Amino acid sequence: MSILATVRDRRRERPVNRPPGGLGRTPVSYSVLVVLGLFAILPVLVLVFNSFKSSLEIGANPLGLPATLDLSNFAAAWRRGNMARGFANTAFLVAGTILGTWLVAGAAAYSLARLNLPGKRKIETYLFVVISLPVQMFIVPLFFLWVKLGLINTLVGLVVIYVALNTPFSVLLLRTFLVGIPKELDEAARLDGANEWQVATRVILPLSWPGFMTVGLVSGLGAYSELLFAVTFLIDVEKMPVATSFFQFSQGYSQLYNLVNAAGVIIVLPLIVLFLLMQRRFIAGLAASGSKG
């Protein structure tokens, strides 16, 4: 009883308005946060301001406010960059990458976290090693392999590459979520007559959906902004994703910077809207997962 009383006394003496780690709400901490916020938001504001300017105005005033709010840059960028077709191709790549990563990484992470898989430590070490390797070293042999398989210049072939690139990290990330789920739930389900598929889909999957949401977000954003493999494995312009539309804004040896900035705003806008719509649900899911685990 004396130990419990001592713990209670220490909890009462702990400052309530001080966050973990000993960092109080001081003017210095707020100043640092404001500086970091400005450092993050200023490039975005410059991008938005320049999207309304002409090329001459960008050269004369690259960091200031636009003289007029001219929306013609957005229409010209959308038309010249063929962004409607680019967004359609990107949507296919993102959806295919997320679904493929969920399927492959989910099955692998479930095996590593919930089953008595022989050599699981070696597999985890292998995944860590694969993550540390630069992806550029696989381009040349993968290109010749894709030519022989007939997957060159196809969106499906690019989806397979994106799934392979995202799977190692996704497996390790999902494994951390699955390990935190008590194994007593598996045993109780098996005692009730559930097979392995039912345990995975009806017991483990509903409890680990925040992990799958995180994996989907990371892999989807990676596929949305990926450029190197897209320009290497795709030849037809009609199959290019929206990230490659910036190549259409060259005129001789110069760049149409007004169209480049307008296209950048168009590409970034869906990500901002997605973040505003899903941030509360995503954070709430992570908090619920942490309280249950």
Question: Could you name the ranges where pLDDT drops below 50 across 5 or more consecutive residues?
Answer: 1-8, 13-17, 19-23, 288-293
Class of the largest domain, according to the CATH hierarchy?
Answer: Mainly Alpha
The CATH homology group name of the largest domain: MetI-like
Looking at the structure, the CATH topology of the largest domain is MetI-like fold
What CATH architecture label of the largest domain applies? Orthogonal Bundle
Mean pLDDT: 83
Tell me the radius of gyration.
25 Å
Description:
The protein has 293 residues and is mainly α. It folds into two domains: 25-70, no CATH class; 73-292, MetI-like fold (Orthogonal Bundle). It has 13 helices and two strands; from the N terminus they run H-H-H-H-H-H-H-H-H-H-H-H-E-E-H. The protein has a two-stranded antiparallel ribbon with strand order 1-2. Helix 5 packs antiparallel against helix 11 (209-225) and helix 11 packs antiparallel against helix 13 (257-292).
